[in-house]
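Supplementary notes for students who missed Thursday's class. We covered one full example, reproduced here. Read the sequence, then the structure, then the short commentary at the end.
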Amino acid sequence: MRRRTGRLRTAAAAALFALGATVLAPPPTAAAAAAPTDYCQGQCADILPPGTNGNATLMEILGHKLFGTRPAHAADQLAPYGALASGYQSLTDDTLTNFFNDASFGVPEDQVAKVTAPRDDVTITRDKKTGVPHIKGTTRYGTEFGAGYAAGQDRLWLMDLFRHIGRGELTSFAGGALANQGLEQQFWPSAPYTEKDLQEQVDYIKDHNGARGKQAMADAQAYVDGINAYREQSKNGRYFPGEYVLTGHVNAVTNAGEIKPFKLTDLIALASVVGGLFGNGGGGEVTSALALLSAQQKYGVEKGTKVWESFRERNDPEAAKTLHDGSSFPYAAKPAKAKGTALPDRGSVTPEPLVFDRTGAAAKGKTPPQDPVEAPEKYKKLEGLFKDGVLPEGSFDPTRHRGMSNALLVSGKHTASGNPVAVFGPQTGYFAPQLLMLQEIQGPGISARGASFAGVGMYVQLGRGQDYSWSATSAGQDITDTYAVDLCNADGSKPTKDATSYRYRGACVPMEKLERTNSWQPTIADPTAAGSYRMQVFRTQYGTVTHRATIGGKPVAYTALRSTYRHEADSIIGFQMLNDPSYVQDAETFQKAARHIGYAFNWFYADSRDIAYYNSGLNPVRNPDVDPALPVKAAAAYEWRGYDPGTNTSDYTPPAQHPQSVNQDYYISWNNKQAKDYDSAGYGNGSVHRGNLLDDRVRALTKDGGVTRASLTRAMSEAAVTDLRGEDVLPELLRVLRSKPITDPGLRTAVQQLEAWRKDGAQRRETAAGSHTYTHPDGVRLMDAWWPLLIEGAFKPGLGGDLYDALRANLAIDESPSAGHGPTGAHAGSAFQYGWWSYADKDLRSVLGDQVEGPLGARYCGKGQLSACRDMLLATLQQANGKTAEQVYPGDDSCKAGDQWCADAIIHRAVGGLTHDTISWQNRPTYQQVVEFPGHR
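Structure (token representation):
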């Protein structure tokens, strides 16, 4: 690698820009294959921006940078996706295809753009409109080979990036930019594996799941073979992604260099990234314990615990629930009297260090120096393509709780047709190319169309079958616990917090050290000077070490134990079943398939007769005396029941104990609470949640009846442009402000602007498509400026600075579209998942004298006095009103200061050489389906 990079550097100009290099043709074309019976009859639609094609050759990247051109199908789904934000109000069933793709099976003969036959037992048909691959195989191997080949055609560079992220090797692959360093330092500690660990997971799937497990790994191998076939052909033919040249892997003149072959263990690494981002739940018990200690310090143990519990909201009676029929599914409940809780001594907690042996540009505490590789003047625009990282800073952080995706389903009893209607999909951020890819797979035992994460797309993961459709939202229930292991020294000497041995079943045993050393050289894409460092994680029988502390003066290490660790890809069995038309035939068999998915997800289903729901996840069976919200002592009595550290398996709660339902009148999910007594793993599931934006609208639709695909899509779209604070907290704020006449003219005007915005729906919506101006810009600006001020003014005086900060460490106070700290950073679309809206709502209602179920442990705004609360709100509103647009929206690399629309807007983060147009903010799924099946097998 380093030698190859050096060669590229010495011949940078000539090597990079041999634009006349020979490009060999892709594989030969063939005739299109027929599609199976499609029971959706033209009533299934989907969309995934920006476009199907996620690969660009060096020539195409150059053309894009110089002339703004893009390859075919790289961006053709972006405009219809973006247009829904301003076009939803007049939406009808007939106009849905203006904003969505036709998701019917197959491709009409007159719409076939190209048919590729990478083998004689499979064809890949691309349609003219979107270029989606429709894979049709006559053998199982050929079908999966075709799926892998199509993945290579559409996402080769992205898949390569993510296998290196999963392996903790991003900087060695793509360069030493600070964001690249941060990304691998965030991901690798959450899923550190040796090659042996990865292979054992492949073997476990094959050996522990009968015929389906063996078939799954055969499918995966065929999929990898397909990727490698395209990898090799595109490399030899010189139509591979141009990023490989820009990052020093291939010489553009001689074609020397290598795109390394994919292997089965890469799929496990890729799955660990996907599962860690979207299918994890729990963890964070150390941070939560620090908040509890701070509350006890402030109020005393008894009241402090009560106050902490009220902010924890683990089973809030006012929370929006997916199962709203009152059904109860107890899980991770607070015990009456907890045993084994392992709270640290105050001030003793330190994070576990990760990075060691820094050299060169990796030196700590300074901006990495640059050592640019120069390109000819004509091509200067390509220099520093990845100077800010291949995934810009803030793109992902697996250590943060994240909630993404939404779902709206209505039973046929309440629809115009008598058939169920569903609008659902995952929110996975906005990237170019997208992390998901669209495909249709038809072959022996497989019949589905939909989205799959690139690199693990052996099966459709979210999509539709012949007469049914399914989707998921992140559930986030508690499948990760924190243990406190007592530290020791093998020689019997007194241990310190730095000790690398611990007590296990009475013996002092060494921790296992896992290491990853990365080094890099500058390239044309990333001018970061040469550097290297070593990452180090200690692994115990109770998981990986995350913190050190003392308890009663004795040193301990806190570890994170995740039930899906060492089982990153076990869920492949469930996805295989969902794609199998002989297995999924109704709501019941759908739920049975979802049981085989170990990730923490909420799964939804619709066919022509039923809607259904099932919450999946490897939920460990705990000692009922253990409080899962806090760290627990590492001892046999407090382990998961049946825990085997060698395989990281345990007893799991039986399927009947997972929240589930068939034919509730409607279902909504926006990562809200699943059901009564199914305790929340994190903070924020209280009286105001973004799930309310869906629940209120779908409940009203269901009550009126006659629901259609268009009306349900309109409900989703209206919620997608609505400010949660403005809809569900501003009414109480205005009641407090209006409890007395407002005499100050400036404040009176500000309140009137907020009232007008609230009356008009509290939306962040353009006056007209493309105007780039909101209908109520002053109301939006005031709310954005006021919210952090009013939250601090209401809570910090009563809580005190230490407790206020400790609670903020568990739950940020705001997540507006322009806040820049959403699940995937600024311009990310997803918003209003995490914030203090429930706390503000409960506190204000208490101050106003309203009934509050599950109130906070004390009253905070104005110390519970209405007049004092009002004075604080007026004072902070005065401050907010004095802030200019430039102060509220300070600007960034993409937006000038004061540009409110741009501050909110969605920008696809470039993961390769192509960028895309900015679109207006919407809080909706990245990939989305609209379905209504009129028929069934």
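Commentary. The two ends are 55 Å apart (CA to CA). Residues 210-237 form the longest helix (28 residues). If anything here is unclear, bring it to office hours.
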